[in-house]
Amino acid sequence: MVQHHLLRPLNNRSPESRNFHVMAKPIGPICNLDCTYCYYLEKEKLFPKGENFKMTPEVMETYIQQYIASQNTLEVTFSWQGGEPTLLGLEYFKKIVELQRRHSGGRKINNTLQTNGTLLDDAWCAFFQENSFLIGLSIDGPRKLHDTYRLDKGQKPTFDRVMDGINLLKKHRVEFNTLTVVSASNAKHPLEVYEFLREVGSGYIQFIPLVERLPGESAVVNGLDFAEPPESGQLPSPVTRWSVPSELYGDFLITIFNEWVSRDVGKVFVQMFDVSLGIWSGHGPGLCLFLENCGEALAVEHNGDLYSCDHFVYPKYHLGNIMNDSLGAMVNSDQQRSFGQAKSETLPKYCRECDVRFACHGECPKHRFLTTPDGEEGLNYLCAGYKKYFHHVDPYMKKMAELMQARKAPANIMNMLPLPSGQ
């Protein structure tokens, strides 16, 4: 999820420190749903049988205390995900807020929570509103598209329960964003998905491309359902049937962008379009996917284990445990810095010479498992789709960037369409 906050550095931090973000998993991978495409449910296999997937009070307080202390900002944002974090119960999160206040040191504390929405009730939503939680709610489109993959443990559809959750959030005036996983199914219906999300009243729309590979022989030992992020020399493995084809994802974004830029600029906020405008206007993407290097968005598990990234929760990317090691020290460790710098250092020549490299930077290393036309490893699976999208939006982003430079609202572009040729 993304929040828009102006963050100013504090003067009492060492020059070696850096700001970073942690996605906290207080209930690990445990969820009340059984979404076909979920890559995190399998993480249960990485822990001993009989594991109690609940962050203990000691681990929780240590995490909150260390995270606040390590941030070089006047505002500190906590992100709670899972699994399904509301399974922990409302009293658990009341304790979290109490601990945050105790250790805030005068800083403003923000909270975001990602949920499937099926367990929300009036009490939850009143709590969110009272404590200014920003809620990210997962929904993949209208009923037929949402229920294709988002099923419960009994393989029953969840759409109605999710909509009940959305209506409760609205009733209590809780700020919420939507997260839509773009799969091989709903990617074929871009306008249907977009119109639905507009009507739902999402404050901020996030589209997450679904790319999951089937495991190779090495995964048989661990019993994992999906392949680990690729390494050099690894044989390519096929993607799942629900993974979105690259060019289809590009077409999905372009179709929605055309609708958005003609009538919704400044009214509907779409993460991908905000990110693109940030890049073209020189403010940066604000999203790790499109940064030149990564390594500043980590994940902490329920037991205090810290991993390099939410998509790299595997033994080789384990940095340590917050009960034994300093959070700040692990983030600034050679291991984590090398992890982040590898994003640019392993970029294929084909990507380095690409005309949209400035916008893409090879996207997430998790998706770099194809070979380039000249046979080099490390091409992103979504390359073709991103190229189509970035080339398409280029003239519009340039014009909106010009408007911003002239201290005018980007929404003015809607009065300039169609753009003159060559722009």
Describe this structure in words.
The structure is a single chain. This protein is of the alpha/beta class. It contains 13 helices and 11 strands. The chain has a 9-stranded mixed sheet with strand order 6-5-4-3-2-1-7-8-9. A two-stranded antiparallel sheet has the order 10-11. The protein is globular, with a radius of gyration of 21 Å. It starts with 20 loop residues before the first strand and ends in an 18-residue tail after the last helix. Residues 1-16 have low confidence and may be disordered.
Summary keywords:
423 residues; alpha/beta; nine-stranded mixed beta sheet; two-stranded antiparallel sheet; 11 strands; globular
Q: How many individual β-strands?
A: 11
Distance between the termini: 32 Å
Reported for the largest beta sheet, the result is: 9 strands, mixed
Shape: globular
Strand sequence of the main sheet, in spatial order?
6-5-4-3-2-1-7-8-9
Structural class: alpha/beta
| Helix percentage | 25-40%
